[in-house]
């Protein structure tokens, strides 16, 4: 439960009034571009930073207490592992800090860290380090897992393995909050997506809904001297703009729009279809009045 959270770093308002109530068992993606305030929100949730205003309550406790009691496990975006220990030793030490940890070997197996359990923590690749971080979050057997870009350093296969493990964890009834840049990742693995832009929540809802709102495509075509209002009524088209001789169509269904465009306007040429980048889609959100105003 996050209410009215605010956090500034000097003149930068990293988090500007975030309210979130998360139900037990939910998997929530915090989605947003670089600098949106995802990590800051997570730091506040884990009690690693103090809010300037507002509060965080996890299972009725202050974040630091919830983390200390093993109810909450966190995985951060940065930070190195403790040195001079093997992976297994590190996981075992962390497990010993909590009242009800999972068996160390089980955690090493589920996270795939078993393969290098006897290696020193300093001798790991980025992806291996990431898995160990995940193991450290999991070993306390927390009810809530908070993960900051958990798949950032992973290759495609490792990503798939990671999410397969997460599905298992989620189906065991745990609550999961993870930060990501990837709309696809949020869509595929979260029940709910919270879209953060410039420190504020601009959308919050089922992943499919958010995807439909920000995941549209754009069609650009050279098509002089036609009435924009006419192309606007084509199926699958949301808005139409003119850029010189070209028109730009924002689409909810670019396939339908393209078929209709070619049929009704055979003069259209130099046609390009592009997936709207997330950043672009966010900015659209911010500037078209649906979202928050620019600071
Ligand atoms: N310790 C800090 N000191 C000063 N500014 C900070 C600090 N941490 C974050 N910021 C600033 O706060 C804003 C939000 O940063 P944050 O790390 O929360 O974003 P993010 O959504 O996690 O981004 P990314 O996707 O790049 O990880 C940014 O403008 C960042 O520069
Ligand atoms: Mg971050």
Keywords:
295 residues; alpha/beta; six-stranded mixed beta sheet; 13 strands; disordered C terminus; binds adenosine-5'-triphosphate
Gist of the model:
The chain has 2 domains: 211 residues, Rossmann fold; 60 residues, 2-Layer Sandwich (Alpha-Beta Plaits), CATH 3.30.70.920. It is an alpha/beta fold. The structure holds adenosine-5'-triphosphate and magnesium ion.
Name the bound molecules.
Answer: adenosine-5'-triphosphate, magnesium ion
What structural class do helix, strand and pairing data support? alpha/beta
CATH superfamily assignment of the largest domain?
P-loop containing nucleotide triphosphate hydrolases
**SSE order:** EEEHEHEHHHEHEHEEHEHEEHEH
Strand order of the biggest β-sheet: 5-6-7-3-8-9
Overall number of structural domains: 2
CATH architecture of the largest domain: 3-Layer(aba) Sandwich
Please give the largest β-sheet: 6 strands, mixed
Q: How does this structure look, described?
A:
The protein has 295 residues and is an alpha/beta fold. It has 2 domains: 2-212, P-loop containing nucleotide triphosphate hydrolases (Rossmann fold); 216-275, Lrp/AsnC effector binding domain/regulation of amino acid metabolism (RAM) domain (Alpha-Beta Plaits), CATH 3.30.70.920. It has helices spanning 38-45, 63-68, 87-96, 104-111, 126-138, 156-171, 183-189, 207-214, 228-232, 254-264, 278-287, and strands at 2-9, 12-20, 27-31, 53-56, 72-75, 144-148, 175-180, 192-197, 200-206, 217-222, 237-243, 246-251, 269-275. The strands form 3 sheets. Strands 5-6-7-3-8-9 form a 6-stranded mixed β-sheet, sandwiched between helices. The longest helix is centred in the middle third of the chain and has 16 residues, at 156-171. The chain starts with a strand and ends in an 8-residue tail after the last helix. The relative contact order is 0.14. Bound molecules: adenosine-5'-triphosphate (ATP) and magnesium ion. Adenosine-5'-triphosphate is lined by residues 9, 12, 14, 32, 34-40, 77, 181.
